[in-house]
Amino acid sequence: xxxxxxxxxxxxxxxxxxxxxxxxxxxxxxxxxxxxxxxxxxxxxxxxxxxxxxxxxxxxxxxxxxxxxxxxxxxxxxxxxxxxxxxxxxxxxxxxxxxxxxxxxxxxxxxxxxxxxxxxxxxxxxxxxxxxxxxxxxxxxxxxxxxxxxxxxxxxxxxxxxxxxxxxxxxxxxxxxxxxxxxxxxxxxxxxxxxxxxxxxxxxxxxxxxxxxxxxxxxxxxxxxxxxxxxxxxxxxxxxxxxxxxxxxxxxxxxxxxxxxxxxxxxxxxxxxxxxxxxxxxxxxxxxxxxxxxxxxxxxxxxxxxxxxxxxxxxxx
Amino acid sequence: xxxxxxxxxxxxxxxxxxxxxxxxxxxxxxxxxxxxxxxxxxxxxxxxxxxxxxxxxxxxxxxxxxxxxxxxxxxxxxxxxxxxxxxxxxxxxxxxxxxxxxxxxxxxxxxxxxxxxxxxxxxxxxxxxxxxxxxxxxxxxxxxxxxxxxxxxxxxxxxxxxxxxxxxxxxxxxxxxxxxxxxxxxxxxxxxxxxxxxxxxxxxxxxxxxxxxxxxxxxxxxxxxxxxxxxxxxxxxxxxxxxxxxxxxxxxxxxxxxxxxxxxxxxxxxxxxxxxxxxxxxxxxxxxxxxxxxxxxxxxxxxxxxxxxxxxxxxxxxxxxxxxxxxxxxxxxxxxxxxxxxxxxxxxxxxxxxxxxxxxxxxxxxxxxxxxxxxxxxxxxxxxxxxxxxxxxxxxxxxxxxxxx
Lengths: 317, 405
Prior knowledge:
The complex is a heterodimer.
Chain A: H1 5-17, E1 25-28, H2 34-43, H3 45-59, H4 68-88, H5 96-118, H6 120-123, H7 125-130, H8 136-163, H9 175-200, H10 203-217, H11 225-234, H12 238-241, H13 247-258, H14 281-310, H15 313-316
Helix pairs in contact in A: 3-8, 4-5, 4-8, 5-8, 5-9, 5-10, 5-13, 8-9, 9-13, 9-14
Chain B: E1 3-17, H1 24-29, E2 36-50, E3 54-58, H2 65-73, E4 80-86, E5 89-92, H3 105-115, H4 120-134, H5 149-161, E6 167-171, H6 179-194, E7 198-202, H7 206-212, E8 215-220, E9 223-229, H8 230-245, E10 273-280, E11 295-316, E12 322-327, E13 336-348, E14 356-366, E15 372-377, E16 382-384
Parallel strand pairs in B: 3-7, 3-8, 5-6, 6-7
Antiparallel strand pairs in B: 1-2, 1-4, 8-9, 10-11, 11-12, 11-13, 11-14, 14-15, 14-16
């Protein structure tokens, strides 16, 4: 190459004068440590919010009612369950219109997250194949979007509480955010894990759909916790019920918002209904802490599995 | 100068399943063992790219060049080895990957930029530049699904180049869009070079690589088979193309001049044969010519009976298109009477050819009647290596004189 010395000098100056945009060093290797994964994901948090925003604005784009749909759906569920369990089967739970949405809200967050996260890597294969970013963000964004819908659906619950003039248990309200955090971690762990597995075994998505139905009835949403926990306690198995990590957030929400532990039944033959454990807030906190600790371990485990499976995503898609 | 990209012993293995078994039932049936074959898309790659350098990765389809680029970008993880990249990386594998059709151009800019690792604040700062570069104007508020493919591509490119990368990875994307846009992209790439950013460029277009890159590596079957200054690398690529395509063996590639005419044998008279045809480069150690150099062809013949013959020469490119063909009487050299064994030296040149591999062949024709008696190509093609950055097929001397008042 022929060039004038002045030109060369100017070029050199330009080269040396250029400040690197970022001093970051990217290392691409077969496996990266858990810590690197977590910190890398944290760096992309703006993307997480971007994807959540996308999910929400895309979901009800071109629909007239928009976000109202996300409230109508649970409202319909509540109405039907209310008619079936309260009016037809006469379960006798007072203020069932508060009891049901409280648990259903928590359950919906979990279910929506899991069912959309399971397929998310496959659904976004165009992105995964062409752009480099921490892919677990896609699963986390599913959870995030479900959380935003949860907030909207919470409006329905508040509305019901206002209509029925039901007061929450103020001494337990502070447990709600704790339960929320625990629930989100559990959900995120399962979401990350399933999203990766589904790339290799596409059956996962269908399995999850079936599994969620069973899981729903194993969680005290429609029926009270004590209905099962009582008999289990006699067998010394009450701990087994708490193995379901969704149970604790659900009953914490119920304890704080529904606030009735052992009310008088509206259905005469059973005067006193045992709905929730009569223990104080510390009992809830203690068990939430255990569930939370396990949830964190599960989440790290899910990230680890995700990292192992991620290496061959592009080929499998 | 420091190293911007360091690729160390990188291998990438793909598992080729004979059948894709992604359902649980199939896995269970095979007890989790799915028959597969290993296929190495990359094997023991070692590459360094200096800061501010523009590197080309050349190779035919399936050579692993795109896989390597994806590994550098972090989209694929290598099976073994390590890649270190200093600074912010922008990969342009597909423009507008990740655009969501339902979102507006504006929303997509934010989403796409954050996919590349840009924070919202940074996008805020560069938003106007991106819109300017994309030439979308007020359409930026429209949903992307209503964009033309040109608008889509422009927006994708605008986001990628405006994220101020230290390292830019480009894969064939410049081949899309209209000419105006391509020029704009190339201009941007050139200004990146001047600013001292590192660029890795994947292409199978040798011309594009030549006009942009300082240095290039050639990949073949997942291995680096050569590298060096662009012109040298391109000549290595040509060699591999030659070997791969089997220039002298594939009848589809070389169509002999006047094909279809049978070689005639007159009245038991044995025809003259070209027993050998070899090429002599001006510098035998080099094995190629530069544009406008001269080569010599040495033609050995054998003619059992005295015959008056015309000598024909033809040059064609790899696709078999004739570039030049002439018989000795066409160029006023008349005919030759050949008898017994002997040699002819044919001087060809200066050859006004730009780089490439050309097929060269000589023929004998009867002086009376003009029927072809024999035809023979040289074993290896004629290789021309162009050290300058001009592209195309013909070397034309250019001089520019400035005249101003």
